[in-house]
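We were asked to recover a plausible sequence for a given structure. The inputs and outputs are reproduced exactly as logged, with field labels preserved.

PROBLEM: sequence recovery
POSITIONS: 275
GIVEN STRUCTURE:
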């Protein structure tokens, strides 16, 4: 079974400011909580299909300060290709070094151990599952497992949350009429290799394949379409995306019957590119 899209990670410099910006653009923003270790915190924009936007910010304080110092060392850089710590490096290297905007995206696995065996057998090297946790504002602790390939342009994988909570209707009903993410566009310099890797990771062949022209491939990941497009060294976007690892370029919203795209301004969502 193919793995569905789960969420986009949007790095923001200040969580309260970002919450106000997204709220002003017609979204309902829910407080997420503080992650295990106390280095980061988040707020969430949730959709009815279970996918969401994660607004992620590095917290202030002594522990985050020490992490910032550690991130500049050779020892931290050496974690990048570690099967045990590669995912930790991926998250915090991006969160500390990149500007505001989409820094990562995630797919959901119902059985993360089985999927990691499948992906490894398919020839992609993946990290060991990493335990993660978040303490919600109501004091409840949510735990889950995550893993990642060591290719930065590919999404990471999340397993099920330990605590399942039913979302109130108002938490997923946005004034701007948006009901989810219709599509995510990825850019790749080596189109054929990226397509092979995505096919292995997602467990499905592309729905639309223009590989004979090395142009575009599409994957249906839950309610979202993942669109892979070939780019070139001359593309102005490549320089911007190279520091993040070639990957997410922009998204397209899914609109319901209520609300209107004209009603809201999506031009300044902390680096999120809306197509």
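RECOVERED SEQUENCE:
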């Amino acid at each position: 079974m193919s793995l569905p899209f789960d969420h986009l990670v949007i790095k923001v410099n200040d969580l309260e400011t970002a919450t106000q910006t997204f709220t002003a653009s017609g979204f309902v923003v829910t407080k997420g909580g503080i992650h295990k270790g106390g280095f980061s915190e988040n707020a969430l924009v949730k959709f009815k299909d279970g996918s969401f936007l994660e607004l992620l910010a590095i917290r202030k304080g002594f522990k985050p300060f020490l992490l910032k110092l550690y991130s500049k060392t050779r020892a931290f850089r050496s974690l990048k290709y570690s099967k045990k710590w590669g995912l930790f490096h991926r998250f915090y290297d991006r969160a500390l070094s990149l500007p505001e905007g989409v820094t990562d995206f995630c797919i959901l696995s119902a059985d993360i151990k089985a999927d990691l065996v499948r992906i490894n057998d398919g020839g992609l090297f993946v990290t060991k599952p990493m335990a993660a946790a978040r303490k919600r504002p109501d004091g409840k602790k949510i735990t889950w497992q995550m893993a990642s390939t060591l290719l930065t342009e590919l999404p990471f994988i999340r397993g099920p949350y330990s605590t399942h909570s039913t979302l109130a209707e108002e938490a997923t009903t946005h004034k701007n009429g948006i009901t989810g993410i219709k599509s995510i566009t990825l850019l790749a310099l080596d189109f054929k290799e990226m397509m092979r890797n995505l096919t292995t990771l997602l467990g499905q062949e592309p729905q639309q394949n223009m590989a004979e022209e090395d142009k575009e491939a599409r994957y249906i990941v839950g309610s979202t379409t993942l669109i892979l497009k070939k780019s070139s060294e001359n593309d102005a976007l490549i320089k911007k995306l190279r520091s993040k690892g070639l990957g997410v370029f922009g998204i397209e919203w899914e609109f319901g019957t209520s609300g209107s795209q004209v009603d809201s301004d999506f031009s300044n969502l902390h680096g999120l590119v809306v197509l």
